[in-house]
């Protein structure tokens, strides 16, 4: 039976959590997490899975110089070999067996002589390109395991993983169907999820938010007010909850067109502005059609609508989590 994305995600996380890293008095060394986050960023952008060793050495070496905080040297051969042994990295084009991640000059010489082509193992690269949930889950696992007491934001920014789109699925990754709208035009829409499926999707996003809160958010680790990764997770939860419909009870609108990723054209909004202290949580956020979003933002009735949305969002949140528990 083919593995599902859930199966692959669980396998990937199990391997990541089982990695062995040398420890210092301040925590584990960052060779492997820096290398993995670089690969996750490449997968997200749909870049080539494998690279020549010279290119890999240059890219990861530069990241180790900039973001190594526990005595790491600019030696990508160490983490690449460790990840290869863990089944997370492929090395191709070499002669003979791949050495273990021990030694110094012998490892450098092996890579200089063999010049292997390598990258994240193909099933995991493809998964992290397609699945926003898998992508954010592994980012969170790496931050929790390796970056206690550190500010990971500059590294996430350098690897292209610190924005509110990081949890989005890749364009075209959602199943679509062709329907005829009220004007008789044929349009593509995502295949509708069942209520049970929508509740399960909502629950998995909320659990990731709960885990993020328990293990320490970027805001507490770094003093930064905004955490785009958390916002990305909360945004995906709200979209799963909405099932493509505007969450303004007085609207019920469902835009006929969809985005390139097959998502409904809905704008996820913090009902109480994040900049003014509004919570970054689905229970205080709503998916709105562009018209209702404009009313909530600058309409004369915006305060009335804001109160309505706060009540509706909390009720929807409790209903969805209750359905998942039931």
TrEMBL record:
It comes from the Bacteria. SMART domains: HNHc. One of its GO terms (molecular function) is zinc ion binding. Pfam families: DNA-SBD_ScoMcrA, HNH. This is Uncharacterized protein. It comes from Streptomyces pristinaespiralis. The lineage of its organism: Bacteria, Bacillati, Actinomycetota, Actinomycetes, Kitasatosporales.
């Amino acid at each position: 039976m083919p593995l599902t994305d859930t199966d692959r995600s669980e396998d990937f996380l199990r391997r990541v959590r089982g990695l062995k890293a040398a420890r210092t008095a301040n925590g584990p060394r960052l060779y492997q997490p820096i290398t993995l986050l670089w690969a996750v960023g490449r997968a997200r952008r749909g870049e080539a899975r494998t690279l020549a060793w010279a290119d890999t050495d240059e890219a990861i070496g530069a990241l180790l110089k900039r973001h190594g905080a526990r005595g790491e040297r600019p030696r990508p051969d160490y983490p690449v070999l460790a990840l290869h042994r863990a089944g997370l990295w492929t090395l191709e084009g070499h002669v003979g067996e791949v050495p273990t991640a021990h030694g110094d000059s012998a490892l450098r010489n092996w890579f200089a002589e063999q010049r292997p082509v390598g990258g994240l193992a193909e099933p995991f690269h493809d998964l992290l390109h397609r699945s926003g949930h898998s992508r954010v889950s592994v980012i969170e696992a790496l931050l929790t395991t390796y970056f206690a007491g550190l500010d990971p934001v500059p590294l996430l920014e350098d690897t292209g993983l610190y924005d509110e789109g990081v949890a989005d699925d890749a364009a075209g990754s959602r199943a679509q169907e062709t329907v005829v709208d009220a004007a008789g035009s044929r349009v593509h829409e995502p295949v509708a999820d069942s209520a049970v499926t929508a509740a399960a999707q909502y629950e998995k996003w909320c659990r990731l938010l709960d885990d993020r809160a328990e293990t320490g958010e970027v805001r507490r680790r770094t003093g930064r007010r905004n955490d785009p990764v958390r916002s990305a997770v909360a945004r995906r939860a709200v979209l799963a909850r909405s099932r493509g419909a505007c969450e303004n009870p007085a609207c019920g609108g469902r835009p006929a067109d969809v985005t390139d990723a097959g998502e409904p054209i809905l704008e996820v909004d913090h009902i109480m502005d994040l900049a003014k202290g509004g919570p970054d949580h689905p229970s205080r956020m709503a998916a709105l059609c562009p018209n209702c979003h404009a009313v909530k933002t600058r309409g004369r009735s915006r305060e009335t609508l804001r109160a309505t949305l706060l009540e509706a969002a909390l009720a929807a949140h409790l209903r969805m989590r209750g359905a998942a528990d039931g």
